[in-house]
Write a structure and sequence with these properties.
The protein is an alpha/beta fold. Helices cover 45% and strands 13% of the residues. The strands form three sheets. The protein has a seven-stranded mixed beta sheet, with helices on both faces. The protein has a six-stranded mixed beta sheet with strand order 3-2-4-5-1-6, sandwiched between helices.
Length: 548
């Protein structure tokens, strides 16, 4: 129903949620949930587990599942919060007649659980602040109730975004991580929005099969509330809904990452067109561009785990990490190990775990670990240098790499193989190790063309072959800097940049390859037989041969 003064888009997205009775929990209002998780939760309730702790920020979704289980088991459902006290589940926030002010206090609410005679499930929302060491009475009461509930048909379900379990309740509480919406849940939400939009001719729906898949793929990792909000934002902002709106979805994920503070969201417009050479690496990544799609899952493809790019500084490793994010249309998260190390014992490992949880919560995503060799340097001797903190952090990260099931693609870069712990290189943790060498002559030609075009110059006006000839042993970053230097010289002289300016700049530069010749040679020898060359197939080019 339209509200006066609202545009059709505003009216639809802002008024539609209010069309349902607040707190309504009918099954048809809830998108399809994970059947496996619901079965597990129902099994615990039927087995008379006294206290079940659901870690989730989606209270209504979790409550909807509990209500559905209770309906099948013919049990009543009550909910508690500090502001409402004990009320029947689904009670409107405006309703006052069913409230008992006394039960706002946790102890009084727990007494109400004991007094309830009929089979019931009690949902306690955000009880975690009362489970700290200072709330002895609440902790003790919960322990006594747990013993009582084992011989009854009543269950307490704690729903909270944080886990706070005192030692006294370790044996009485069962913890479950409530899953984020699956693709089918988001698809059902999107179908409902599209169905509502059909009455508004001003709103354009442009979602064919691939566009729909891209939008749903981007929304994975959001809660239903976050997904509904971002779809509403797109409609209000653009008056349409299409697969080209994935950047708006990424912006919503950026908010989640920003609130955490441990990961950095990297917005990038880089593409493989801006990466000179590295043909084998680009081909490998291109073939996995649809690896997270519905079709890939139906085909039986497992999601790719990640890659390690090892090689000379300034040869495009970080650029490739940014380009693959744009190519795959997935958010790029930078994992800065410096942020992980805290001053308190155990806080560094906890920071890593929290960062991993955030990465998985916005998955599918790309986790970029830049210069991983420096991040974990000295992990083997960590016991003597930092009390074992680096080793524990490294162990936490390695365990996650081996066991992760969330679609988080790891892109790790390294410059110094001597600092790489051997455990990282074991097969199974990452899909492939690529060696990124200095660009060959043909690749240098491509690099010059890319950087001249990015600066508004036509490569045809330059002698690219001569520039490639005089840039032997230059990295891509050094070629870019030479062009920038030539631009400064030409601008100062009030002239248009020419081949001569670039050649002069190249002549004044001593490439890193000359000052680090021994280290690069050692790197090439190590990579031969241990890593794939990012530029040439192994049968066509050996590592030890210097590029002309």
């Amino acid at each position: 129903m339209l509200n006066g003064g609202c545009s059709p888009q505003e009216n639809l997205t802002l008024a539609a949620p209010a069309a349902k009775a607040p707190g309504a929990l009918e099954c048809h209002d809830m998108p399809a949930l994970s059947a496996q998780f619901e079965t597990e939760l129902e099994t615990l309730i039927r087995a008379r587990y006294p206290i079940i702790y659901l870690i989730s920020s989606e209270e209504m979704r979790a409550q909807g599942m509990v209500v559905e289980i209770a309906r099948k088991r013919q049990k009543k459902v009550f909910e508690w919060s500090l502001t409402t006290g004990i009320v029947p589940a689904g009670t409107s926030i405006q309703s006052q007649k069913l409230r008992d002010a006394a039960t706002k206090e946790p102890l009084a609410a727990l007494d109400q659980v004991i007094e309830q005679v009929e089979p019931a499930i009690f949902i306690f929302k955000d009880l975690h602040p009362f489970l700290t060491r200072t709330n002895f009475a609440v902790i003790r009461k919960l322990k006594e109730i747990a013993l009582h509930l084992k011989n009854s048909f009543k269950t307490i379900v704690l729903v909270s975004p944080l886990m706070e379990i005192p030692a006294e309740l370790d044996k009485e509480i069962t913890v479950l991580n409530f899953p984020l919406p699956a693709r089918d849940d988001l698809e059902e939400l999107l179908d409902g929005i599209i169905a509502d939009l059909t009455q508004f001719k001003q709103v354009n729906i442009n979602l064919d099969g691939p566009s729909r898949e891209r939008l749903l793929q981007a929304a994975l990792g959001l809660t239903l509330g976050e997904a509904e909000n971002v779809f509403a934002k797109i409609i209000v902002k653009d008056g349409q809904l299409s697969g080209d709106d994935v950047n708006e979805v990424f912006a919503e994920k950026q908010q989640i990452i920003r609130k955490n503070g441990l990961l950095e969201y990297c917005a990038t417009n880089e593409s493989f067109a801006n990466v000179g050479g590295l043909t084998v690496l680009k081909d490998w990544l291109n073939k996995r561009a649809l690896a997270f799609s519905k079709e890939a899952r139906a085909f039986g493809l497992p999601p790719p785990k990640g890659i390690l790019m090892l090689g000379v500084q300034g040869c495009g490793k970080s650029l490739c990490a940014k380009a693959v994010s744009n190519q795959w249309q997935l958010p790029l998260l930078r994992f800065d190990m410096g942020r992980m190390f805290g001053s308190f014992v155990g806080s560094s490992e906890e920071n890593v775990r929290r960062a991993i949880v955030v990465a998985e919560s916005v998955a599918p995503a790309i986790l970029w670990v830049d210069e991983i060799d420096k991040a974990f340097a000295g992990s083997q001797g960590s016991g003597a240098s930092d009390g074992g903190t680096t080793a524990r952090v490294f162990g936490t990260f390695l365990t996650w790499l081996s066991e992760k099931t969330a679609p988080v693609f790891v892109v790790a870069t390294a410059n110094d193989i001597s600092q790489l712990p051997p455990e990282l290189l074991r097969k199974g943790r990452l899909d492939e190790i690529f060696f990124v060498d200095l660009p060959s002559r043909e690749e240098r030609v491509e690099v010059f063309r890319i950087h001249l075009q990015r600066r508004g110059r036509s490569p045809e006006n330059f002698d690219i072959e001569a520039l490639a000839e005089h840039s032997h042993d230059f990295s891509g970053a050094e070629i870019e800097e030479a062009i920038n230097s030539a631009l400064y010289d030409a601008f100062y002289a009030r002239l248009e940049i020419t081949t001569a300016h670039v050649l002069a700049s190249l002549a004044q530069t001593v490439p890193l390859a000359k000052t680090m010749d021994e280290q690069i040679g050692r790197l090439r020898r190590w990579a031969e037989g241990r890593a794939r060359n990012a530029s040439f197939a192994l049968e066509n080019q050996g590592f030890a041969i210097r590029h002309s």
